[in-house]
Design a protein that fits this description.
Largest sheet: 4 strands, antiparallel
Helix content: 10-25%
CATH architecture of one domain: Sandwich
Order of helices and strands: HHEEEEEEE
Strand content: 25-35%
Strand order of the largest sheet: 3-2-5-6
CATH superfamily of one domain: Immunoglobulins
Number of helices: 2
Radius of gyration: 22 Å
């Protein structure tokens, strides 16, 4: 029998890193076997369009992430982000963020192809008075 005392590191930071790495490997295996079945015919496409809520202009460079699937990316110059997901019935939380805009979260079901428009609101800060100079 293998004794962990001799090979297990004494540093709690190193122990945490090892455990985190092992959990990451387990999550990747689960994602690749359970969530993504073999064959592209089992997948559907989600098209996300990110737009400014006031001007309806497409927003380039907005961060889009789906934590359950480990998908993260940014919208292209046309405000679009496309990805494929399994045709299984999953409820995915799509998170969209862009500097200068209020973050947005949307929950979708993955049983159909989607063209989704997400409108982000500008963050506008107003000040009564601004003092410039020594206080």
């Amino acid at each position: 029998m293998l004794k962990l005392k001799k090979i297990w590191p004494k540093s709690t930071t190193l122990r945490a890193a090892i455990i985190t790495g092992i959990l990451g490997i387990i999550a990747a295996i689960i994602r690749s076997t359970w969530i993504f079945p073999e064959g592209k015919d089992n997948n559907i496409t989600l098209n996300i369009n990110v737009l400014d809520s006031i001007t309806n202009q497409r927003i380039e460079g907005a961060k889009v992430s789906i934590d359950l699937l480990g998908i993260t990316g940014t919208t292209n110059q046309n405000g679009l982000f496309n990805f494929s997901v399994p045709k299984k019935q999953l409820n995915l939380v799509v998170y969209v963020a862009k500097a200068g805009y209020k973050d947005s979260t949307l929950t979708i079901s993955t049983n159909l192809n989607y063209n989704i428009e997400i409108f982000l609101r500008n963050i506008i800060e107003e000040y009564d008075e601004i003092n410039i100079g020594p206080s």
